[in-house]
């Protein structure tokens, strides 16, 4: 292992931003890219319109390259760090991909709207991060607007998500009365300038009692409140503990306003210092260390039709160890076949070139003629495989059938391929007599995508009939209990790998079954332990 290799790997910070739609993820991402020099942004205090413009310029270039990868991975250099931001589609694009992308991240930034607090989609994404035990950093956004009290938000984080928080900074005022944030570590005030928010004046102080704070803020009751709150935090709040942060049990929390670019750079600096470099991963032959020179990686996402003209597919590979070199030969472990990685793409916001070299922590895109499946391992030497990629509970279900029985073969091929890509989950009814295929998706838009792609790519028309379920639970238990369970339960299905799954219409139904069969274990994803 050379020193420069180790340095390269350690400089990688690969993370995802998790949030509920409208919390400001696009805005925050744009600001981060701007600091990384990955997009141009005219002026300093320009609003969203300009940011959008800059981003669309960039998308135009992506289009010219023939692919649009803006929604997948964004990569840039900042100081000595090599930052990879994994996008987690939120709005209509919300899908299982969103969950799976989190398996490629080494940490997550949880973005919360100060007025709305912890919202539904954040909870779902948080749970996946929790499952992996990755560190989670919190950015509480939109302090330029009136929102919930900081303590209330901290309590909400704990009550709803079960995570304790350590505020790295603390706001003085909010909304029209927003004055500053106080950086607890660096003991300094960052002043919010209402007329020119991204022009941040920083004032070094001796601590929260420093009279300079009174002079600067010039609002006795706000300063009094600030001092009381900081005292409460110091006395009764959690201590800063990097071990707890690293294990995802304590989240460092930052307050700011993404749109005004206030607090974003401070967040970025602290985040990059604390967030982990590429972490070791489990395989069936033990832990794989990112600093191991043997190249390895796993496919976490397959995106089809990035270029509609060519109908190509790209498999996204998270490099887990070693160095990737263009043209290298690897072992495609599931197929037991050698594979030459000839024309990979890296999702550089800056140089947008085919990648020649990439390191553990990076994401590369591989053109996929149908050779990849979600969860596939590629390795230079050896034949180990990374832990299986879990399936997550779909929330919408349809019975699916081909309209023209003569097209049965193409239909089977199509849904098989789309299942491998991870676009849909396919279930079969448990009772063989009336075998029916059921498609499950996380975001309802996927049904349209499915219909469209089957028609466009496989020339098949399908009939989709909505089913009333909202939850899938993978179940396990000993043989006797399972027999009793399967005898009495309706709505049993098998997943692609023949694992037993039960579908529920609502929470009440699910809880009733759980109460009735306490010995059966119900899992929200296919990681049955
Ligand atoms: P998303 O990707 O998480 O869905 O959120 P996005 O960044 O698109 O932001 C959602 C809305 O919240 C946008 O307003 C955006 O301008 C606003 N926003 C983001 N950060 C802040 C902030 O720090 N303070 C305030 N006050 N607003 C913020 P919009 O009206 O939907 O769009 P636009 O008309 O501003 O473009």
Which sheet architecture does the biggest sheet show? 8 strands, antiparallel
> What is the strand tally?
30
User: Can you tell me the CATH superfamily of the largest domain?
Assistant: P-loop containing nucleotide triphosphate hydrolases
What percent of residues adopt helix (DSSP H or I)? 25-40%
**Molecular shape:** globular
Q: Could you say which small molecules are bound to this protein? A: guanosine-5',3'-tetraphosphate
Strand residues, percent: 25-35%
Could you tell me the radius of gyration in angstroms? 25 Å
Provide the structure class.
Answer: alpha+beta
pLDDT < 50 runs, ≥5 residues: 41-71, 348-352
Individual helix count: 14
Query: N-to-C terminal Cα separation, in Å?
Result: 36 Å
How many separate structural domains?
3
CATH C-level category of the largest domain: Alpha Beta
Strand order of the largest sheet: 26-23-25-24-28-29-27-30
CATH architecture of the largest domain: 3-Layer(aba) Sandwich
Query: Mean pLDDT, as a whole number?
Result: 87
User: Which fold name corresponds to the CATH topology of the largest domain?
Assistant: Rossmann fold
GO molecular function: GTP binding; GTPase activity; translation release factor activity, codon nonspecific; translation release factor activity, codon specific
Domain Tr-type G: 10-279
GO biological process, one term: regulation of translational termination
Protein name: Peptide chain release factor 3
